[in-house]
UniProtKB/TrEMBL annotation:
Its main location: membrane. One of its GO terms (biological process) is lipoprotein localization to outer membrane. One of its GO terms (cellular component) is plasma membrane. It comes from Acinetobacter gerneri DSM 14967 = CIP 107464 = MTCC 9824. This is Lipoprotein-releasing system ATP-binding protein LolD. InterPro entries: AAA+_ATPase, ABC_transporter-like_ATP-bd, ABC_transporter-like_CS, ABC_transpr_LolD-like, LolD_lipo_ATP-bd, MacB-like_ATP-bd, P-loop_NTPase. Belongs to the ABC transporter superfamily. Lipoprotein translocase (TC 3.A.1.125) family. It comes from the Bacteria. It is found in: Cell inner membrane.
Length: 230
């Protein structure tokens, strides 16, 4: 039994399958995957390129629908909601870090990070700005607040994307290669920040990574190959 056995389950996936239809060829990317992540737990997913890690993360994060199977967020069915409802739940409970950052190019770093809270329409920009600034400082970017994504390095963009995922203090962070573009020292700094936030917020983390050190620091490592756990 692990340390999290008595914690609430924040994410559960049951028998997920995902196929893409391309004309008459159907590609079965996720064949049959189930998983549970408990509050405060850090789970890493490793597997070779093309094994289906990003596809799975998109399905778990409600960015895409499974072909078969079910996803539950905080005990409630999530995958069958319509796009607006899924967007709402994502904003309430999830922080998502894409493999390729997906920042909004016409907004500054600060505005990109503030965006998820602004979408809630509950706070004034002045308050939100302070929270976004504080987080950008924690990822080492207080000198880049007004830069737009096109004016940032790859690693800087990745850190802005991390700050954006964390600004809402999510119950669960799903991250696809969050340290992929970072040097070792910066990656270690980001990992320390994630550990602090995990302690502060009891945030669960599901992280896809090729970074062996990051993967090993997880409570549990899942190995994926050709759309199944191995
Ligand atoms: N929209 C799509 N249509 C068709 N095939 C797709 C689509 N998205 C992904 N695939 C295929 O699914 C497989 C898994 O892709 P995925 O991006 O999930 O891999 P990955 O494990 O994240 O790889 P990497 O480590 O390189 O990021 C790949 O072979 C890819 O070509
Ligand atoms: Mg990927």
């Amino acid at each position: 039994m692990n340390n999290f056995a008595n914690n609430k389950i924040v994410l559960e996936a049951k028998n997920i399958q995902k196929s893409f239809n391309e004309g008459k060829n159907s590609v079965d990317v996720i064949k049959d995957l189930s998983l549970k992540v408990a509050a405060g737990e850090f789970v890493s997913i490793v597997g070779s390129s093309g094994s289906g890690k990003s596809t799975l993360l998109h399905v778990l994060g409600g960015l895409d629908r499974p072909t078969e199977g079910m996803v539950f967020l905080n005990g409630q069915r999530f995958d069958n909601l319509n796009e607006t409802e899924r967007g709402y739940k994502r904003n309430q409970y999830l922080g998502f870090v894409y493999q390729f950052h997906h920042l909004l190019p016409e907004f500054t770093a600060l505005e990109n990070v503030a965006m998820p809270i602004m979408l809630r329409k509950e706070s004034q920009y002045s308050e939100v700005k302070q929270q976004a600034e504080a987080l950008l400082e924690r990822v080492g970017l207080s000198h880049r607040l007004t830069h737009k994504p096109g004016e940032l390095s790859g690693g800087e963009r990745q850190r802005v994307a991390l700050a954006r995922a964390l600004v809402t203090k999510p119950a669960l962070m799903l991250a696809d290669e969050p340290t992929g573009n970072l040097d070792r020292k910066t990656a270690v700094g980001i990992f320390e920040l994630l550990s602090e936030l995990r302690n502060e917020l009891n945030m669960a983390m599901l992280i896809v990574t090729h970074d062996e050190q990051l993967a090993k620091s997880a409570d549990r490592i899942l190995h994926m190959q050709d759309g199944i756990w191995v």
